[in-house]
Amino acid sequence: MSHEQTASENSFPSLWRLFLIFFKIGCVSWGGYMALVSVVRAEIVEKHRLLRDDEIMDGIALAMLLPGPVAVNVVAFVGNRLRGTLGAALCATAVILPSFFLMLGFATVYFAWEGQEVAEKALSAIIPAIAAVIANAALKMRGKALPGPLEWTLAAIAAGLILFVGGIWIVAAIIVGAATVGMLRFRLSSRTETSATAHKNPVSFGLGSWLAMAFLVGCLALFLLFPSLDITSLSAQLFSLFAGMSLMLFGGGYIFIPMVQEAVVGAQGWLGPDEFAASIALGQVTPGPILISATFVGYKVAGIAGAIVATIAIFLPPATLIVLAANQLERISHHAYYKAAQSGIRAVVCGMIMAAAVSLLRSIDFSGGLEEAWPQLAIFGVSLIALAGFKRDEVWVILAAGLVGLLLP
């Protein structure tokens, strides 16, 4: 049975099944961003065969162009593709919940928490394993994304630009340039046959789309106008701040750090510098997206209710935007020009995924020479062999790496 046939047959998984899949992903996706995306790809494409690689890469490209956390936006894209708006909401919620509860627990006891050294030892071993997971995802995607020399060249250029230049404008330029090359390079058929993944009845800009647009405009308006409004509710202030900022976070979660620091430490004075640093450090320790640090801030400001409001505000608007954009793009997905553009985009997405793996490896501390760095390099090599050679599950590879980190001196 072909992969395409299997994906088609499983195109409508139950909501409960989706929740369990993404909750599991949220429990083990340390590193956020491409780490989480790579585990999503392994579960959805390889293990459960619900979508194809090209569909996942379409979601990654769209998420990179839109504001908000790339990984959670990709999850929302996948959920929307499988089960519509409800699927998007359920999958995004499921993947965030493990990090939310962990962060809530850390925020409650972090002053008395003395296990930070243990967590750091585990994390130092998990990072190279995550790099292996990401590299393995890129290797698996290369079959469809890189069919010829031109695609390999595009992927190499994209990886080089990400590693040595970086920045959201570079990402945008890479994707636009790749789309242009794709349309110029590939001969376009005069026929515009509907692809196997296109809906027979493309999504129209109906009432739901207008409501989503109104919600997004309202979030931005509230953020811009809030200083002039006489509102004393801390929950309302949290929602206004994080919902507005979430729609300005082009470039991923790390752009969030200086923005939120200026807002909650400088402007609002809700957290001290040390407390803010703790929120970022704990966001790194938990699996899932770094933006889960908003939960810590919300808890500090308004308790559990504040944690819930801040978490919803930082993730909901970008997820709404990507579902809205994906539904409208679905209307043109059967056109030959769109397909040609996507062929170029998928090549550079594969290159950017490999760049993410290299970036994680570059974070290994070589200041003490190979004698100190070799355990992490060995973990990367063994993890990649286990994943690519022995087809081991990403979850067990990550957990095993964390255990090794705890045992290392």
TrEMBL record:
A molecular function (GO) term: chromate transmembrane transporter activity
Keyword entries, A-Z: Cell membrane, Membrane, Transmembrane, Transmembrane helix
Transmembrane segments: 21-40, 60-79, 86-110, 122-139, 151-184, 204-226, 238-257, 301-324, 344-361, 373-390
Gene Ontology CC terms, in alphabetical order: plasma membrane
Main location per the UniProt record: membrane
Top-level division of the source organism's lineage: Bacteria
Membrane topology category: Multi-pass membrane protein
UniProt xrefs under InterPro entries: Chr_Tranpt_l_chain (IPR014047), CHR_Transporter (IPR052518), Chromate_transpt (IPR003370)
Localization, UniProt: Cell membrane
Similarity comment: family membership: Belongs to the chromate ion transporter (CHR) (TC 2.A.51) family.
Record-linked NCBIfam families: 2A51
Protein name per UniProt: Membrane metal-ion transporter
Species: Actibacterium pelagium
